[in-house]
Amino acid sequence: MACSSTQQDSLGEMPVIAEKVTLPTGDLIVCDLAKATDTLDVPLSMLTEELQIVPLDNRDEALVGGWVRTTVSDNYILVSNNRQVPYKLFGRDGKFICTVGSFGQGPNEYQLTYAEQLDEAHNRIYIMSWNAEKILVFDLKGNPQPYIPLNTRVPKGKFRVNTADSTVIVTKLPFEGSAEMVWVQDMHGNRKQSIAPGHLMAPRDFSNEVMDARNTSAYDVMFLIIVPEAKQDSLYHYNWEKNRLEPRFTTLFTGEKMPWHGYTELPHHFMGDVSFPVQVSETSFQGSAPAYYIVDKTTLKGNFMRLKNDFLHISAWPSFSNGYYIANMEPMTLKEQLEEALKEENLDESVQARIKACLSSLDENGNNVILLAKLKN
């Protein structure tokens, strides 16, 4: 099912909350959250093309379970493993194609994974575990291929394989004592170049994260350092030719304590989130409910934001990766949200019809439903 909508740029009347600073490595956009004056409802249609609603195949072998990462390409949907459920590959119509690898510790098996890449053009799926020594490789029928050995062990790593020129860019947590945090290697594990952690070096703690979104052609990466305390940092582009990290977006924060924060790059905007640690036990913390904000790359206008899926009149988690908005939802959760949306007064007739059509297609006991929309270029 596909839904279309037309929406003007809602940032037009917003204040300028950022400035562009020219550095030797290129332009850096610096956001000043003190200039954000309000919280804006940002319609999904402002950022994306039409919404597609894809119920996944209901066969037992196709079931994906609860929270999972989802990767979309032109013709495929790849759903990551959930606990002991292995990766599942579907067509864009939701039809189950195959299971990819299996849960375990043997050859071509994995347990907790942290990153994956769906390379439709070269008939490849790449999978990296959370503390990896290799990248597992499969074709689009789920058949295992020779794995890619990593130059060093990778805790919580992100990567991008360039299958055409047989190179791999890898990023890992910048632990103390590490000689590298970003490097380029070949398919046999031979390192070609690398970048040392420098000022980003952090204690050996898996609470920190490496983040990327892949919504543009750049190799974007952010290191979310929250232990021992949050650090002021930037979203970077890795410049392969000059072997350097080039800062592209950062935010100024006021207050005694730096909040936990993350940045996401879209084709025409940067998005950020802020939260604060909440102690949930003697030894563990979790983030408070995040506040999100958005900045236009050209006008530098923006504000705090709530993302609204205006195609279906429901709220939306700002989840953007590989050039798509993606929501992987259990059918009952989606059903409850749609039924609540129908209660709204003055609901547009076309939206109402869309919601009813979606509700009629839902199987409450079925597999998950994928909501996806391609980002506007």
From TrEMBL:
Among the Pfam families in the record, one is DUF5128
This one is known as 6-bladed beta-propeller
Species for this entry: Parabacteroides faecalis
Taxonomically, the superkingdom here is: Bacteria
